[in-house]
Specification:
The complex is a heterodimer of chains A (316) and B (746). With 316 residues, chain A is of the alpha/beta class. Helices cover 40% and strands 14% of the residues of chain A. In chain A, the strands form 2 sheets. An 8-stranded parallel beta barrel of chain A has the order 3-4-5-6-7-8-9-10, surrounded by 7 helices. In chain A, α2 packs parallel to α3. The two termini of chain A are 20 Å apart. In chain B, α6 packs parallel to α11. The two termini of chain B are 66 Å apart. Chain B folds into 4 domains: 113 residues, Orthogonal Bundle (Helicase, Ruva Protein, domain 3); 199 residues, Rossmann fold (3-Layer(aba) Sandwich), CATH 3.40.50.2030; 168 residues, Bifunctional carbon monoxide dehydrogenase/acetyl-coa synthase(codh/acs), Chain M, domain 3 (2-Layer Sandwich), CATH 3.30.1650; 225 residues, Bifunctional carbon monoxide dehydrogenase/acetyl-coa synthase(codh/acs), Chain M, domain 5 (3-Layer(aba) Sandwich). Chain B has 746 residues and is α/β, with parallel strands linked by helices. Chain B contains 23 helices and 25 strands. The chains are: A alpha/beta (316), B alpha/beta (746). At the A-B interface, α4, α5, α6 and α7 of A face α5 of B.
Amino acid sequence: MPGVEIPIEKWTGKIKEVKLGGGKRKEIVLGGENTLPFLSFEGSVPHPPTVAIEIQDKEPAGWSPILLSAWGDAVKDPATWAKKAAEYGAEAISLRLVSAHPEMGDTGADVAKKTVDKVLSAVDLPLIVIGPGVAEKDNAVLVAVSEAAKGQRIAIGNCEEKNYRTVAAVCISDGHAAIAKSPLDINLAKQLNILLTDIGVPADSVIMDLDTGALGYGLEYALSIRERVRLAALGGDAMVSMPVLSHAGAEAWRQKEAKASQGMPPGWGSVEERGIIWEELTALTVLNAGSNIVTMMHPKSVERIKATIHKLMGKK
Amino acid sequence: MSKFIATRAIRGAHAAIKMADDTLQDALKKMGPDTPVVFKDKIGGGTAFYLPTIWGLLGTKVQKLGELVPVMDYARGLLPPVPAENMWLPYLGETLDAGAATLYAFETIEAVRFAKGEQPEKKDGFEYNGPINDTQMRAWGIQLVDGRMPGFAALVGCAKSTEVAVKIVRELQSKGQLIFISSNRNGRNVADQLREAGVEMGYDTFIVPFGTDIVSAIYALGFATRAALSFGGVEPGDYRRILLYNKFRCFAFVLALGPITDMEYAAAAGAINYGFPAFADTVIPNILPTGITKFEHVVSMPFDDIPGKDDLEKAERLVQRCIELRGIKIKIAKVPIPVAFGPAFEGEVVRKADLACEFGGKGGMCFEWLRMKGLDEVEDGKVTVVGPDMDSFAVGSKNPLGIVVDVAGRKMQKDFEPVLERQIHHMMNGGEGISHQGQRDITWIRIHKNAVAKGLRLRHFGDILHTCLKNDFGAIVDKVQVTLYTQPDKVKELIEQARAVYKERNARMAGLIDEAVDTFYSCTLCQSFAPTHVCVINPERVGLCGAYSWLDCRAAYEIKPTGPNQPVPKGRVINEKNGEWEGVNKFVNEHSQKKIERFTIYSLMDAPMTTCGCCECVMAIIPEANGVMIVSRDDYGMTPCGMTFTTLMGTVGGGLQTPGMMGHGKTYVTSKKFIPVEGGIKRVVWLSKNLKEELAEELKAACEREGVPDLMDKVADGSQVTTVEQLLPWLEEKQHPALTMDPIIG
């Protein structure tokens, strides 16, 4: 662009770097940039966003056949699944402990611990573990998970405003990163970060999950909350400058557009492509708004998003 | 600082150091400096924290006997001389140093005992636990952090009787406290008493007997130290943070039962370093000023002087008092009433056909009065019903009722009374079959037949209020007691007293002016949809949503210090007239994503407050009329500025600063600080009709105050005027004062 001067914004803030893995395990670093996503001409973006693949500890129920057929029998065993995810290019594994949910099997701490042990020994990628989302059960299984993964520096979630102390405590004690989940609200996100750092979680061990809505299901909110948080962080507010995690895959594949079969309705086009595009677009949007790590589900969309990130980072 | 206690603690510390020195020297001679020292509990569970107190506080790893020598050298160096007869001001710091020295000495002694194979201790076939192992420390440590377990009670000595010992332990267990047992009186301690009573001890029952002498009490502090190292993210050697962590997060205390020895005083001084206060059931001097501990340092509660009909009741009160003095808040899981409770029942209506009985309402007499009392004047959880109860009232009858709520709390303030009292409405409505309306002396409560059939009685009102006030406002409320009166005479008598208080409160509110405070409060609750909006709430202007007054914000901040209501110090004044302060500008700038640089409290034209989307009213200038119009949210009609409320809202909302336009609460119109820069209420040329009616009384008073008693007759509303063309002749005809005031623009 001859003669056009690119306006450069001077930011005072910088996103904190949070490391996962390390030691014998591969290490990833989230965050570290001092500019908006991918604007490498303006500032430094030392670590490209990470693409994690989400697996769960239980054979999924109600999943799209497209998604299921991509993984085949691997979904029956989390360790096999994790290995296959690594083969498909996952840079981290996000393990959701579905079976601990009171209505999905109600498994306890011992099962969670075994699952995490198995996954940790199956792959050398950094691990994220998400509880079943029921406070009482989260606290029971994540405590065991934390202990099992001591020294491996995993990320554990979720910490929420009403229930964060237990997970925070074990993250401090075992040296893990805590995932702070807030419902699309910058003030609650900030408050939770304050609460977590107040009880002693180091600021470089907090990852924010600002909540995600899929394309057509609140993606615009997901975008604008990330944008706001990022602008505040770069503007110098250290209490929102933690890196951001987005569960793009799970949100996208939950929606009927991703799941409905061919011809239902006819105008919706190829069922093979639909869910993948849905996931891809959801992920791309949250990445452009400032996510440092996305968790995804279909190998194909993972491949595409990784390629897109590669290009956006200005690499050939 | 009590000289008595300082002297005895320092003397005890000297004795402890001597004992440790002798023990260590002897062991070094007999076993050599390379003998390993390892802490283990009776089941062989160990610790990765070496000698935890020494490692934590000093950063020294001790793994062999020889490594204890420098520790003892250090401890000896901490020892102050025993205060002489004529020395009258023993310094608190010296006593605390003596306490710390004692802890190092005790841990040294236990380490040597381990080296000699004398630990954990055995007595008459009973095996003491010894130090808590790491696995158990972790399990309990997590509970300390997440609040399931407040802390621990270190019981030192022996209770008055076996029954009292059991009662104390049971009461502590019911509060979720861990119980640690050490020391003895004439060879007996609480562990002996529990054994006699057949009470199981061990990790499973949350009762850990450490040993028979005071030296074993060090295991309690080793536990506390490890909790801070594990869960506080503290590095070994960072003693300050370890101590602070325990002060604020581990609600532990020492309870000395029976006469106290010098060495026990020394150990208690050591515990005070951690913020753990010491309580005694014997006569000793009190150390009441707070500082190192959150509240009092040392409190004597002679057992026989505790009120109570028997020893068991005294024991219960003793524990209750300890809990209070350490500042422990207990959450109540469920509202204990025979009907369901929850927000789902808030909108419930009790129809005439379903009515069991009602209180207040038209022609009835019902009031609620929440008052602050001293901590010793309120018995927590006590509910008293004076007069006949619901089951004796005729079906559908109207009855008098007085609800008097006494609350006490260390952080409670008189000004919070109305804030809490207003919550009664919300709390009572949570009960299934209870419909509550109004407040103060216009309360109206209706009860559903089904609720009475399920067993609902008046005392359950008390249970609801007790539970909810403690759970929701535990930060400021420590104790709640409720009395319900139904005798007509008594209600009549009390309602008069209550009215006098309401009047007093109104006067206090009227006297609470901006000039009287140096701090305003922010409200950023609406930033989720108006990201750059910051409400600054001053005593004389309610938040623009009408829901938050300055007092509400102050209470909200006490309750949730990280919440959306933060103190905004005024700072240096920039312009008194416009109400512009450096502190306010700075706060608003920082919290508006740097969008708003200046902010005045008193002007509509010069940098007015921003507006979110919740304002009760919007005001806008009408340049032609040299005045302002005010439209309220519940007015759907057209206004003279050519926009309805909704359209106006779209113009000013979303966190914008729009000179000449501003959102505000209804009652702001009657405030003395109503746009004073522009001339106050005299500028109002048009006002929504419903607002005129709703605030008739207050507006009348405000107009009189401003010297324009007939102003409201001159102010147009939507029933008379909806365009500027109509407005001007109206104002001229009525000779509205705005017409002759200075130009509003310019």
